[in-house]
C-alpha cells in the first residue's frame, strides 16, 4: 500500500489537495531533543494501521503545543491538547457506533486528492492544520492554513458533537455517584482519623515468585493541620511462577471509601516461558477507609489488629492469608517493607530467601 500526503491552501475557493509520497507506517526514532515544531510533524507523519483519521492544528506561529483529534477502526475517538515533553491537557473521549463510523468512512472516501506536490507553511495568526486520513485504499496527509474545508469541517463537527455528548453523560454519572456517596456515607472524607488510600507501589522479587505491595495513605487527624502521610497496609504475596502483567487501581471512584488494588499475573510454563494465550490470574485487595479494614479473598481484616499481611497463592491461585500482629505505619518503600517482613518472619525460609529482581 502506498501512503501519500497532500497540502492545500484555503486562499482558493475550491479544494486543492496536492499529494506527496511518503513511507508506509513508519515512525522515526525520536531523539530526546527536537525543534519545537518537529513534534507536530512527527505526530502527523505517524499513522498505524488502526488509524482512520487524525487532525492536528495550531495557530501560527507554532506556540509549542497543538490540538490533536483522532479516530481508530474500533470507533474510539480522542481529542486532546498535546504539549510535547509535558503531557496532554483537556482530553475528550467518545465511542462511535457502527453507523456513525461508516458515515465518517464514506465522507473520507469522497475527499479528492490531486497529486500535485506543494508546501504550506504556517501563517501568523491563522490556523495551521494537518489532516491525515485513510480513504479506504491509501493514507493521505492534507496541510492547509485558515478555516477547514467543508468536507473536513463536517467530520470534525460530528466528532465535537460526540465528545460533548460523552462529556455530558460522564458529568451526569459523576454527579449521580457523588449523590449516592453522600447519601450512603455522609461527609466521610473529613472525619478525624480517617485514612484514605493515595496509591500503591508494587515490586517483584527475583525468581518471579513473590511481590511486595505497599498501599500509601493520608490520614486526617484533629491535632495535625494537614493530613499525615502513612502506610495503610503492606502485603507480601507469594505465588506460583508467573510474571506480573498488570497492576493498579481497580477502577473505583476517588470519593468511594472502598478502594481496590489489583495485581495480575501470567503464569509461566514448565520451560520458564509464557504464552500470550495463557489465562491470567488476579488478586484484589480492598481497603475500606471508614471501617479501617482490608478484604482479601472475601475475608475482611481489621487494620487495628495489624497492617502487614502474608498472602500465599496456591496452585489454584486461591489466597491463604496470614495477618501479622504488627503495625508498620511509617512512610516506607517496597525495600523497607520487605526488610520488615524478613525481620518478623525470621523462621520462614521462603521469606528469608527473597531478593529484589
What descriptors fit this protein?
38% strand; eight-stranded mixed β-sheet; 357 residues; single chain; disordered N terminus; 2 domains; 20% helix; five-stranded mixed β-sheet; alpha+beta
Short structural description:
This protein has 5 helices and 18 strands. The chain has helices at residues 38-45, 98-109, 150-185, 334-344, 349-352; strands spanning 3-7, 19-22, 51-59, 66-72, 76-83, 87-95, 127-134, 139-145, 195-204, 210-219, 228-238, 242-249, 258-267, 281-288, 293-296, 299-302, 308-313, 319-324.
Protein described:
The chain has 357 residues and is of the alpha+beta class. The radius of gyration is 27 Å and the shape is elongated. Strand 5 and strand 6 form a beta hairpin. The N terminus is likely disordered. Helix content is 20%, strand content 38%. The chain contains five helices and 18 strands. It folds into two domains: 167 residues, no CATH class; 163 residues, no CATH class. It has an eight-stranded mixed sheet, with helices on both faces. Strands 9-10-11-17-18 form a five-stranded mixed sheet. A five-stranded antiparallel sheet has the order 12-13-14-15-16, with no helix packed on it.
List the helices and strands and how they pair.
Blueprint: E1 3-7, E2 19-22, H1 38-45, E3 51-59, E4 66-72, E5 76-83, E6 87-95, H2 98-109, E7 127-134, E8 139-145, H3 150-185, E9 195-204, E10 210-219, E11 228-238, E12 242-249, E13 258-267, E14 281-288, E15 293-296, E16 299-302, E17 308-313, E18 319-324, H4 334-344, H5 349-352
Parallel strand pairs: 1-8, 11-17
Antiparallel strand pairs: 1-2, 3-4, 3-7, 4-5, 5-6, 7-8, 9-10, 10-11, 12-13, 13-14, 14-15, 15-16, 17-18
Amino acid at each position: 500500500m502506498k501512503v501519500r500526503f497532500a497540502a492545500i491552501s484555503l486562499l482558493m475557493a475550491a479544494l486543492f489537495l496536492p499529494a506527496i509520497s511518503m513511507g508506509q507506517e513508519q515512525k522515526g526514532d525520536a531523539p530526546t531533543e527536537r525543534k519545537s515544531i518537529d513534534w507536530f510533524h512527527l505526530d502527523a507523519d505517524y499513522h498505524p494501521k488502526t488509524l482512520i483519521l487524525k487532525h492536528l492544528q495550531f495557530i501560527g506561529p507554532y506556540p509549542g503545543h497543538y490540538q490533536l483529534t483522532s479516530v481508530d477502526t474500533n470507533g474510539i475517538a480522542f481529542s486532546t491538547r498535546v504539549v510535547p515533553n509535558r503531557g496532554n491537557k483537556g482530553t475528550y473521549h467518545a465511542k462511535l457506533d457502527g453507523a456513525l463510523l461508516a458515515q465518517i468512512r464514506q465522507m473520507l472516501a469522497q475527499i479528492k486528492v490531486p497529486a500535485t506536490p506543494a508546501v504550506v507553511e504556517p501563517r501568523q495568526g491563522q490556523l495551521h492544520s494537518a489532516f491525515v486520513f485513510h480513504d479506504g485504499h491509501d493514507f493521505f496527509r492534507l496541510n492547509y492554513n485558515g478555516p477547514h474545508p467543508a468536507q473536513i469541517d463536517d467530520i470534525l463537527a460530528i466528532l465535537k458533537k460526540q465528545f460533548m455528548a460523552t462529556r455530558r453523560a460522564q458529568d451526569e454519572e459523576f454527579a449521580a455517584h457523588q449523590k449516592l456517596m453522600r447519601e450512603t456515607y455522609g461527609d466521610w472524607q473529613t472525619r478525624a482519623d480517617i485514612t484514605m488510600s493515595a496509591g500503591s507501589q508494587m515490586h517483584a522479587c527475583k525468581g518471579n515468585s513473590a511481590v511486595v505491595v505497599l498501599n500509601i495513605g493520608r490520614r486526617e487527624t484533629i491535632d495535625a493541620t494537614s493530613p499525615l502521610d502513612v502506610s495503610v497496609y503492606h502485603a507480601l504475596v507469594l505465588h506460583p511462577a508467573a510474571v506480573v502483567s498488570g497492576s493498579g487501581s481497580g477502577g473505583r471512584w476517588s470519593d468511594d471509601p472502598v478502594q481496590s488494588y489489583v495485581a495480575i499475573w501470567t503464569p509461566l510454563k514448565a520451560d520458564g516461558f509464557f504464552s500470550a494465550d495463557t489465562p491470567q490470574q488476579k488478586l484484589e485487595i480492598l481497603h475500606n477507609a471508614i471501617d479501617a479494614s482490608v478484604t482479601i479473598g472475601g475475608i475482611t481484616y481489621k487494620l487495628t489488629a495489624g497492617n502487614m499481611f502474608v498472602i500465599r497463592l496456591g496452585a489454584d491461585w486461591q489466597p491463604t492469608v496470614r495477618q501479622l500482629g504488627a503495625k508498620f505505619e511509617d512512610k516506607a518503600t517496597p525495600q523497607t517493607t520487605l526488610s520488615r517482613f524478613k525481620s518478623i518472619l525470621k523462621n520462614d525460609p521462603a521469606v528469608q530467601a527473597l531478593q529484589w529482581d
